[in-house]
C-alpha cells in the first residue's frame, strides 16, 4: 500500500476517534442544560407568584386607605346631618352616604378576595420554593457528575491529539494539506473504505478502472463522485 495512503488512513481513524467524543460532550451539556431549564422554569414561576402576591398586597393597602377615607367621610356626614335644614340637603347627604357605603362594601369584598388569592399563592410559593431547592441540589450533583465525565473525555482526547501531532509531523505537508482540504467539507469521512465496489462516503458504485486503482493502492485515489480518499480494508482486499 502507498505509504502516504497508509498514513492518511491512520490519521483519519485517529480524527474519527477524536470526533466520536463530540456526541458524548454534547449529551453531557444537554443533561446539565435540561435540569437548568427546569430550574429556570420553577424560578420563573416563583418570581411570578412573588410578584403577584406583592401586587395584591399593594391593592389591599390601597383599599384599606380608601376605607379609612370613607370612614372619615361618614363621620363628617354625621356632623353635617346636624346642620341640615332642608329636605333637599338631606336627600343629597343620604345619597352620598349610600355611595360611600357601596364603595366600602366593594373595598371589603376586594380585600377579602385578594387576601384569599394570596393565601393560595403563598401555599404555591412554598411548594415552588421547595422544587427550586430540590432541583438546585440535583443540578449541583449533575454538574459534578458531568464534570468527571468531561474530564475523562478531555484526557482521552488529549492523548489522541498528541497522537495526531505525531502523525502530522511524519506526513508530507503536501499530502497533509490535501487531506485537510477534503476534511473541511467531508469531516471525519475524508478517508473512507470501498465495499462492494462502492465508495462508503457517497455510496456511489465505482467503475472498474477506479476500483482497480483503489485495490492496487499504489497511489492515493479519490472517489470520482464525491472526492473522498478511498482505500480497501484488508478483508475486502482478500475478497477482491
From TrEMBL:
Tree of life domain: Bacteria
Keyword annotations of the record: Coiled coil
Recorded coiled-coil stretches: 25-84
Location of the C4-type zinc ribbon domain: 198-230
UniProt keyword annotation of tRNA processing present: no
Protein's UniProt keywords contain Coiled coil: yes
UniProt cross-references to Pfam families, sorted A to Z: Zn_ribbon_9
Name under which the protein is recorded: C4-type zinc ribbon domain-containing protein
Amino acid at each position: 500500500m502507498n505509504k502516504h495512503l497508509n498514513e492518511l488512513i491512520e490519521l483519519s481513524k485517529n480524527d474519527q476517534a477524536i470526533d466520536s467524543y463530540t456526541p458524548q460532550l454534547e449529551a453531557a451539556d444537554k443533561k446539565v442544560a435540561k435540569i437548568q431549564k427546569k430550574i429556570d422554569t420553577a424560578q420563573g414561576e416563583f418570581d411570578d407568584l412573588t410578584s403577584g402576591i406583592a401586587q395584591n398586597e399593594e391593592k389591599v393597602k390601597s383599599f384599606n386607605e380608601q376605607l379609612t377615607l370613607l370612614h372619615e367621610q361618614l363621620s363628617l356626614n354625621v356632623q353635617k346631618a346636624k346642620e341640615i335644614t332642608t329636605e333637599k340637603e338631606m336627600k343629597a347627604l343620604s345619597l352620598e352616604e349610600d355611595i360611600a357605603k357601596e364603595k366600602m362594601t366593594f373595598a371589603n369584598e376586594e380585600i377579602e378576595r385578594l387576601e384569599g388569592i394570596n393565601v393560595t399563592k403563598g401555599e404555591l410559593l412554598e411548594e415552588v420554593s421547595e422544587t427550586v431547592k430540590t432541583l438546585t441540589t440535583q443540578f449541583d450533583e449533575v454538574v459534578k457528575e458531568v464534570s468527571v465525565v468531561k474530564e475523562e473525555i478531555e484526557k482521552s482526547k488529549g492523548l489522541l491529539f498528541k497522537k495526531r501531532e505525531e502523525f502530522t509531523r511524519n506526513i508530507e505537508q503536501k499530502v497533509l494539506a490535501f487531506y485537510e482540504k477534503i476534511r473541511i467539507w467531508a469531516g471525519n469521512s475524508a478517508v473512507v473504505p470501498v465495499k462492494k465496489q462502492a465508495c462508503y462516503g457517497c455510496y456511489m458504485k465505482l467503475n472498474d478502472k477506479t476500483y482497480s486503482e483503489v485495490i492496487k493502492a499504489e497511489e492515493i485515489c479519490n472517489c470520482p463522485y464525491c472526492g473522498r480518499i478511498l482505500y480497501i480494508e484488508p478483508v475486502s482486499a482478500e475478497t477482491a
